[in-house]
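User: I'm writing a tutorial on reading structure tokens. Could you give me a worked example: one chain, its sequence, then its tokens, then a sentence or two explaining what the tokens reveal?
Assistant: Sure. Here is the example chain.
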Amino acid sequence: MTTKEDPPDWIFDKELNDMYSKEYLRKTAKETGLIKRERKIDPVIIFWVLVLSFSVGMQRTLASLKRNYEHEAKTTLSDSSWYYRFSDELIEFLKKCVIHGIEFQAQKQHRVLGDRLKDFDDVLIQDSTIIRVSDKLMKIWPATRTRTVAAGVKVGTLVSAVANGPKSIAIYSESTAEIKTLRIGPWIKNRILLFDRAFNKYQMFARIDEYQGYFVSRVKKNANPKIVSVNSVCRGNSIDVVGKNWKEVLPLLRRQVLDAEVEISFKRRKYKGKQKKDVKRFRLIARYNNEARKYHVYLTNIPKERLDPDEIAALYGARWEIELIFKELKSRYALDVIETSNARVVESLIWVAILTMLASRTIYNLFRRLASERGKEAVRFTQMRWASVFSENASRTLTTVLKYIDIELDNMTVYNLYHSQALDPHVNRKRFREGLWA
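And here are its predicted structure tokens:
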């Protein structure tokens, strides 16, 4: 809410500075070694220039970033001094800022789960997206599923429905198996985790169940669990499915919905060189999709008393949330437009794109809350439309965010910056028409 001390025009800038205060940024820069003795680099300015400039700018180059930094910092830098900043220390600084931003958002409840989900703490969605990078980086980030020599970065993301944004983000090589991008622990208690088939591993499902968490996953095509009971009676001449395996039942199935308990055998993780076999019971739901003309099959441990088959299918449809995040990162914040063979620059700019999204989501969630308080429908403010608005106004946001913390430019500083930036740094370069006229 706005106050007399905070003009309406500055409320978003205050929110961003609350998330990333200048004190936090300077402290983190020292802790990570980003800033040591050099006084020309201000971590507050470099952070906001990166977040509100590269990913949403028309010119996505390090040179344009340098010009933006010089403009906002009222200083000039040599090219080498600027490029030197894209280092391991900058990567660590940006990663810590991402974690801090996620924790900041997690402290606030931006969404309320519906009546049928209100007894759960959260709904989480896990997935990853691939970014193609220079082939020269194949030794660092080897690609998979390609016939040519290629490199790819996998961005693994866990999204929270309640926080309306990422809960955790990590970077891997494309060749890293999906199952290795997620660690199950006590944090999953009373939360629902939605998977696609790439994460379908019975051992993981068992761990979620043992930690008193819940999951919903699509069933793999080669899965063949044994049906031990059914949760609903089907009228008419339906086939008896109890005691049969899923692959045996599927070709004969004619009912609209099958809600059954199944028994799954799997191997536990190795412990002291030994691997034990185990058996678990889960719930299998097969729901016929008229458009696709086939059954959509889900595996879950959510009891039938808490969610019925239609609700399970609708819940799984919420996985579209994470697809929107990936689309937002790629189409609005340049996640897949990183044209360099410098590994440090690539990783830095991936974290920058994620930070841009976090900044955007912070204002978006605040905007939705303010709209609701004013009696407007928050649901009409869609994420992708907001991302476009945010991108188009990012340069203005950069100016006001810095102005909020008393960083402004005077006319003489602007003149000196333009003068220094307009000079071609390549002193000995031959220029077209040189000698014809001055």
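What the tokens reveal: The chain has a mean pLDDT of 81. Residues 106-326 form a domain with the Transposase Inhibitor Protein From Tn5; Chain A, domain 1 fold (CATH 3.90.350).
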